[in-house]
Amino acid sequence: MTDLKNNLEIFDAIATRRDQRRSFLRFAGGSAVALGGASLLAACGDDNNDTGTITPTPTPTPTATTGVTDADVLNFALNLEYLEAQFYAYAAFGVGLNASLLTGTGAPGTVATGTGAGFPRQVAFSDPVVQQYAREIAIDEVAHVAFLRSALGTSAVAQPAINISGGTAAAPGAFSLAARAAGVVDTTNGVFDPYADDNSFLLGAYIFEDVGVSAYKGAAPLIGNKLYLEAAAGILAAEAYHAGLIRTLLYRKGLQTPNPITALITGANKISDARDSLDGTVTNATINVIGDDDQGITGSDATMSNIVPTDANGLAFSRSTGQVLNIVYLSKAAVSLGGFFPAGVNGSLRVSAANA
To answer: Which one, of 65, 35, 76, 36, lies nearest residue 349 by Cα?
Structure first.
């Protein structure tokens, strides 16, 4: 990966890396695809392995049973990608997204920043492996933003207000609120700073990654156009790689010798339980038994890994858009804002499920 001499070079590095390595959609003869009149990946190059020309439906049509259009689904995904890209860009490179990647329809917002501990900044990584993984994931996530914006064209929503801060004890940011809800820090005054060190970064990343995988899988039935479905599947696969990597690092570091960091495994499992509680997967409300749609990184005990959370058929779990918003809004109730999106997401899919 490019050794960046200046953090602001991240965006040039992203473009170079993508040009050299891959594009998400491949078109015969560079054919363009329109979504509501906008060109899909107009700047994407040809691929000599492609055969035939794909001619999808030129406008976003609603899925018959939901009334949700492909553009609605892609914009919902774009909101989540804004969130992940900003977190990883700050953690890996110390800068946020370029202003050219933030415009669009809906209410534009900024990233809640500040100075000192608890606020978005570059992590002072001590483990070069974790640092390189963070840089790679950051570049992938920013590329996802650029890709979805290109696919949506003028229909793309603007980045909404985002809170990726730990904040302070008196004014906790979204990360601290999430960690308090999970019991990872003191539930009243605890501060969780995901930028403090390698292990804190991994736990912060863990809050997002599994949610992204389940969100894309849950959205698949809502997408009518096969090209857009293929694109979503490509992003889902990338997110799954990221999630597996984060889960593996947390598990390995949790068991490392001679000094196991059991707090990492315990913290990750608590985050999983909290996500289950927020999204309504509680199997017995009377005794408050947490369901296992969102499993921790261990099996029946800490010596058994659970890197890939699946059902009995070995399939990854799905979340509805409402359940995804329960988690990022940090609320069991049907609300339209909160948590990591203090003013809500942009687009038509913006209300969480009623699980309270």
So the answer is: 76
